Amino acid sequence: MLDLGFVRGNLELVEEKLRARGADPAALLGDFRALDRSRREAITSAEQSKAQLNKLSQQVGALKKSGQDASAVVEETRALKEKLEALDRTAAQLDEQLRLALASIPNLTRDEVPAGSTEADNLTVRTWGEKPVFPAEFTPKPHWELGEQLGILDLERAAKISGARFAVYMGQGARLERALIGFMLDFHTRPVTEGGHGYTEVLPPFMVNSKSLFGTGQLPKFAEDLFRCSDADAEGAAHGTYLDNDHWLIPTAEVPVTNLYRDEILDDARLPISLAAYTPCFRAEAGAAGKDTRGIIRQHQFQKVELVKFTRPEESEHEHERLTRDAEEILEALGLPYRRVLLCTGDTGFSSAKTYDLEVWLPGQGLYREISSCSNFDAFQARRANIRYRASSKSKPEFVHTINGSGLAVGRTWLAILENYQQPDGTVAIPQVLRPYMGGLDRIVRRP
């Protein structure tokens, strides 16, 4: 969420940044100045009425004490109380309208984010790795064919038990998924002195309340993309009328991990805080009808290892680069070719000020696909979730900056290994670093 004072003092800049995102400032802001002015006028009038009411109450007391008739002043007090109640109601209504308006405004992208409206305008920053070379007579297969042929991926039975966009991993396929989770967590949580990244592992709940989803920016805007575990009304939730104690399945570990420190003031000495969490993730994919219907690119349930950082504002750019590099090193250790892409203004997510996508090469499909999004949210999420830090015992609390990214999406890493390590004989080689997690297995073969 943006700071009210900042929006008030920089409305033209906010409108310019919204247009750069492809948004309509008028639709999001309405007549912001008039709403803000009316709210402040109502608050001022209420404060003046309260001051006048205090004076009248003192007069009533003085008149009664001296034995004089206080009925006229009592009547004036009664009328002023009714006026004050009306002013308070008006101020509360205007305050709620302003809160909802602020909650609907996306974060402002940083100046270095390239202007653009679609993913075609994204900027490739770097490319790593050599794409695998296959024999001329061999055509690499997509992962859904490999998985079926090897008997390690069963989409048909998943559809039978759960519906579309679900998967069942079998045998060595299930073990490969488990191996990736263990490898990623070990790499990220191993001390830096031992070649790791030094994150603290967290295992959070897989359900969260509405406040948590509001804090990271999923509610109210993206209610349709979430799975609710309560009787919350979908239309009401989209308009911000969901209940605080409603429960929702998490779309990413970003939500529970970021909200660990909601409504807290952190000690400066603890920053930056770096956390890594494995969780399943659940997404309704409401806007994905007809997209990626084959394979496991876009699922209702998938697994992910998430990286989350809480930093001082002046260090967030550096920590964003560092977190992105931490995710890249997983791909490099696995020998998977990838590219880093800086998203343009129109493709940057609602809460993000700057996002790098890591896209892995998939030879079976002949294209790069996103495997991680690493975003710097500046103070946007911290302001919504009220996460602050105090630089010293005498300093005023300030909002931290939050950063997160996938380190990595496990299912997409799984399919990238199948497509990049497939062999002409129909087997799939196991990357060297994963073999200890696979019980020494060096390749996946079809089992009877």
What does this protein look like?
This protein is α+β, with helices and mostly antiparallel strands and 448 residues long. It starts with a helix and ends with a strand. It is built from 14 helices and 17 strands. The strands form five sheets. An eight-stranded mixed beta sheet has the order 1-10-11-12-15-9-8-4. It has two domains: 4-103, Orthogonal Bundle (Helix Hairpins); 119-206 and 250-444, BirA Bifunctional Protein, domain 2. It has helices at residues 4-9, 11-20, 25-29, 32-65, 71-103, 143-150, 155-161, 172-189, 210-216, 234-238, 254-258, 316-334, 380-385, 410-420; strands at 123-128, 153-154, 168-169, 200-202, 207-209, 247-249, 265-267, 273-282, 301-311, 338-342, 354-362, 367-376, 388-390, 398-399, 401-409, 428-429, 443-444. Helix 6 (143-150) packs across helix 14. 39% of the residues lie in helices and 19% in strands.
Domains (count):
2
Low-confidence stretches: none
Compute the number of strand runs.
17
Shape: elongated
In CATH, what is the homologous superfamily of the largest domain?
A: Bira Bifunctional Protein, Domain 2
Q: How many DSSP H or I helices?
A: 14
Instruction: Tell me, rounded to a whole number, the average pLDDT.
Output: 93
Describe the sheet with the most strands. 8 strands, mixed
Salient structural properties:
448 residues; alpha+beta; Helix Hairpins; BirA Bifunctional Protein, domain 2; 8-stranded mixed beta sheet; 3-stranded mixed beta sheet
